[in-house]
Amino acid sequence: MQFHIVTAFPDIVEGSLGVSILKRAIDNGYIKVNVVPLRNFADGKHLQLDDYPYGGGPGMVLKPEPIFRAFESLKIDRKDTKTRLVYMSPQGAALTQKKLKELAALNSIVVLCGRYKGVDQRVIDNWIDEEISIGDYVLSGGEIPSLVLVDGVSRLIPGVLGNAESAASDSFHSNLLDCPTYTRPANWQGLPVPEVLLSGNHKKIEEWRLNKSLQKTEMCRNDLYMKYLDNIEENNNE
């Protein structure tokens, strides 16, 4: 999987790529991440990236020329169905586990990080395949959302996680939140680990985990719980 992250602030992105799972995934060759500094493609003495919006109003808008040049430098084949250009935007569709699975099936993802008031609409209309949002709120830029996307997709690429079952048991993988987890010691300050987890009975442990997952999902995310029940009903009717 090849990621290209086009950003006005490459330091924000590069710092996070040098630690933990993403670092190991890059070092081991499971993913490649190319950080593209947008200012390298700007004009003028001050390498200006933004300008005032036509029609007036507050805020600044990222200019189209540097973004077009950055995209062109990547020599993207627009007919390649395994490559997608994504703009991280509050106006985009929600990033879900289902969307991460879809993106993980691609070969290349180009991620544009917005800044200021956004980007010139001509960039979106002529280059961007889809806009993606990580939530109903506004951040200072798209760098953090881009890292969320890269991290979420990378976890689904075979080999990135030490245990492939880890991703399969994550929250949202089956429309359920994850069950509670425990580690040593078995009794900490008078607080014991549930006995079933120490029993060695794998069938009972799986039943306990599913029940706890269902309880947590119903309590914290009833919308997901109802979706889970609907899926079960659809499967039973097939």
Secondary structure: elements and pairs:
Blueprint: E1 2-7, H1 10-17, H2 20-27, E2 32-37, E3 50-51, E4 61-62, H3 64-73, E5 83-94, H4 97-104, E6 108-113, H5 121-126, E7 130-133, H6 143-154, H7 164-168, E8 187-188, E9 191-192, H8 202-220, H9 222-237
Parallel strand pairs: 1-2, 1-6, 5-6, 5-7
Antiparallel strand pairs: 3-4, 8-9
Helix pairs in contact: 1-6, 4-6, 8-9
Describe the structure.
It is a single chain. This protein is of the alpha/beta class and 238 residues long. It has helices at residues 10-17, 20-27, 64-73, 97-104, 121-126, 143-154, 164-168, 202-220, 222-237; strands at 2-7, 32-37, 50-51, 61-62, 83-94, 108-113, 130-133, 187-188, 191-192. It has two domains: 2-154, Alpha/beta knot (3-Layer(aba) Sandwich), CATH 3.40.1280; 169-237, Trp Operon Repressor, Chain A, CATH 1.10.1270.20. The strands form three sheets. Strands 2-1-6-5-7 form a five-stranded parallel β-sheet, with helices on both faces. It has a two-stranded antiparallel ribbon with strand order 3-4. It starts with a strand and ends with a helix. α1 (10-17) packs parallel to α6 (143-154), α4 crosses α6 (143-154) and α8 crosses α9 (222-237). The protein has nine helices and nine strands. The mean pLDDT is 92. It is 39% helix and 18% strand. α4 (97-104) links the parallel β5 (83-94) and β6 (108-113).
